[in-house]
Specification:
Number of strands: 22
Strand order of the largest sheet: 3-2-1-4-5
């Protein structure tokens, strides 16, 4: 069968890598793709948000199944367009995608259906937001209402920081219309967790647990990014915690969607804070996380395409999970996340690709005349398996030492919170 993956990041390369292992595949396409996807699929020069052009291509090419990677095409209504033409596509509808498309919508949905989350208030007037924060106090979290590629969340520890965030979002429009409305919410403390499920109506299948690293710099310092690394499994999600996540969050989301008359089929990502009062939702995403997808997909055994097709059709599926640990480190361009530099040649990929227990997923790359160049902020995802987290981490960083490009930077502490916790439990 012919399969199309929509997107051009590391998550999409990982999806293609996993799907390409299926004997069902007869043709593999990626829109718009990158330098890595070009090696295993035919890149299609259509922007992921050009919904009509993608649907036209899927029809004319006879695509049998489409998997949507990023959030923007989902929020733009790609699934609705494809389904209106009788095309099979895995992802939620435009209405269902509002869980990520609008922070205010998601918070109000959680409030309505008793899903634990931080106390929040929504503002469209910057002065009212500032006045509220003055009374509310700091630390406080300020979020752009719309899509911002992971860069629209500001953890403000001082009143001055909060004022700057409001000005940047609402007055200077640093993130465009995404910041026209903001959500101001209480700061939650605890360990973060990414909990992702495949959802089809009332049925869901959890994927392995993981933890993302959002901040740019070591020690969780610097600005928020789309994610600088991730690992799986997450040691902070034990059986008791996972049971609470399912009952208090996932199953209440399903109930709420049903009551709202929204049919949801696709991946649902709950970004969580594991507080002393239990798990609370920081945000919902309506797709696989990036970079969480990379270590997660490495742990799923078997024919992932067949699993997705069966789940799409409403058949019962179960996942066989590799017991090994996986860890992913993002290599970024100079200037990321504000103004990343492009066009730098990447050296050392061939040597790394020969290493055992290592996979490199491309994100912001471009293939020109047989050479790979940077084209974007997050450039490569260097991922590894290990018998334990330490082994996976050592292998990933060993591989990174063989890669270089001008301005390359990355976090050197991916997984550090898990190591601190393991040391503390001894």
């Amino acid at each position: 069968m012919k399969v199309l993956v929509v997107g051009n990041g590391g998550r999409e390369h990982a999806i293609l890598w996993k799907v390409s292992q299926s004997p069902l595949v007869k043709g593999l396409y990626c829109a718009k793709g990158n330098g890595g996807t070009a090696k295993i699929a035919q890149n299609v020069s259509i922007e992921p948000t050009n919904v009509k052009a993608l649907a036209d291509f899927a029809q004319s090419e006879g695509i049998d199944f489409t998997i949507v990677g990023p959030e923007a095409p989902l929020v733009a209504g790609l699934v609705d367009e494809f389904e209106s033409r009788g095309l099979k596509v895995f992802g939620p509808s435009q209405r269902a995608s509002m869980l990520e498309g609008s922070k205010a919508f998601a918070k109000e949905f959680m409030q309505k259906y008793g899903i634990p989350t931080a106390e929040f208030h929504t503002f469209e007037d910057p002065q009212r937001a500032k006045n509220f924060i003055k009374d509310f106090g700091v630390p406080v979290v300020i979020k752009a209402d719309g899509l911002a590629s992971g860069k629209g969340v500001f953890v403000c520890k001082s009143y001055e920081e909060a004022l700057r965030a409001i000005d940047n979002l609402m007055i200077k429009k640093a993130l465009g219309e995404a910041g026209s409305k903001v959500v101001v919410e209480e700061f939650l403390e605890g360990e973060e967790a990414s909990y992702i499920v495949m959802l089809n109506g009332d049925s869901y299948v959890p994927l392995p647990t993981s933890q993302d690293h959002k901040r740019l710099l070591d020690g969780d310092k610097g600005p928020n990014t789309g994610g600088m690394g991730a690992y799986s499994p997450n040691p902070f999600v034990d059986e008791v915690t996972e049971k609470a996540i399912r009952e208090l969050i996932i199953e209440r989301v399903i109930k709420g969607l049903r009551e709202e008359g929204i049919y949801y089929r696709g991946f649902l990502y709950a970004g969580l804070m594991l507080t002393k009062d239990g798990p609370k939702v920081l945000e919902f995403n309506v797709r696989l996380g990036d970079p969480e997808a990379q270590p997660l997909l490495m742990r799923i055994k078997g024919d992932f395409l067949q699993i997705l097709l069966d789940f799409y059709e409403g058949k019962p599926v179960s996942l066989e999970i590799d017991p090994r640990h996986t860890l992913c480190v993002v290599l970024a361009s100079k200037g990321y996340p504000e103004k990343p530099e492009d066009g730098k040649e990447i050296i050392g990929l061939e040597e790394v690709e020969r290493m055992e227990d290592v996979v490199v997923f491309h994100a912001g790359t471009e293939l020109k005349n047989g050479r790979v160049y940077t084209k974007g902020g997050r450039v490569l995802n260097v991922c590894a398996w290990g018998k334990n987290l330490r082994g996976a981490r050592e292998r990933a960083y060993e591989a990174i030492e063989k890669i270089s490009f001008e301005g390359m930077h990355y976090r050197k502490d991916i997984g550090y919170r898990a190591f601190l916790a393991l040391q503390g439990s001894r």
